[in-house]
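User: Can you recover a sequence for this backbone? Please restate the input before giving your answer.

Assistant: Of course. Working from this structure:
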């Protein structure tokens, strides 16, 4: 499921391939992913414009078309982008195809169709309406601390809540907690200043390193949880079996020996 580092990769990919080309058409293969806009309106409003720049916030990607119009992409569970020559056959999971006047097109692919494609006039307004929290990489320590002091619950549930912090999903929340050596079910009320600072540093470290590794598990350090996550996986730190538990509505993987409950 695409999280902040994955969406950052999509942003870079789109920036490197799809900007400053006139859009000659938009083909909607599945209107199911469209949110608040019809296939006809999407095509009508984008046709003749160019994508100028993009902006990521949490797991959202916004792409500015000329003027006051932004394409909104959310990648759901299985969304991704693919840029290819127009004569090539799009994948069967293509939901929306942006066709450029020159030679290529950009496909929004999404096998499971939990993704979202829409148009927004003002990105900040949209973020406010959705009540999305600040992007995880934009957060300062003081803001981060305030979130964990104000909200009660399991630390992992707070990390996952997009209304508090935008961009962290199940995989990276587990990775951050593994690095901070904190049990995912630790109650936020138990966290002192030192623990929150540690968690904040781990959050930045993991998200930044994941981006450096191009959000590709094969390029991530073997000392991370991710390459070992799952049934039969062993903790890369102590060699004991990893454990799983349902926390905050998601399956957490962790090492019960290395990650202590405060
Ligand atoms: Zn361990």
């Amino acid at each position: 499921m695409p999280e902040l580092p994955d969406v950052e990769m999509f942003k870079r990919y789109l920036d490197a391939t799809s900007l400053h080309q006139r859009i000659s058409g938009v083909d909607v293969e599945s209107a199911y992913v469209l949110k608040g806009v019809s296939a006809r309106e999407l095509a009508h409003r984008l046709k003749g414009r160019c994508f100028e720049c993009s902006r990521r916030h949490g797991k959202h990607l916004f792409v500015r078309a000329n003027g006051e119009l932004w394409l909104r992409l959310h990648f759901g569970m299985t969304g991704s982008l693919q840029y290819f020559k127009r004569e090539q056959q799009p994948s069967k999971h293509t939901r929306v195809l942006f066709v450029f006047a020159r030679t290529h097109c950009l496909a929004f692919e999404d096998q499971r169709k939990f993704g979202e494609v829409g148009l927004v006039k003002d990105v900040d307004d949209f973020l406010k309406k959705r009540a999305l929290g600040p992007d995880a990489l934009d957060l300062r320590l003081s803001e981060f601390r305030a979130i964990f002091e104000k909200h009660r619950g399991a630390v992992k549930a707070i990390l996952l809540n997009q209304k508090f912090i935008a961009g962290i999903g199940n995989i990276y929340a587990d990775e951050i907690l593994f690095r901070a050596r904190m049990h995912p079910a630790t109650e936020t009320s138990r966290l002192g200043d030192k623990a929150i600072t540690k968690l904040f540093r781990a959050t930045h470290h993991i998200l930044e390193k994941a981006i450096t590794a191009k959000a590709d598990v094969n390029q991530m350090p073997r000392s991370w949880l991710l390459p070992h996550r799952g049934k039969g996986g062993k903790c890369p730190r102590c060699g004991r079996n990893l454990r799983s538990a349902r926390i905050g509505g998601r399956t957490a993987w962790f090492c019960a020996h290395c990650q202590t409950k405060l």
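That completes the design. The chain is about 30% helix and 25% strand.
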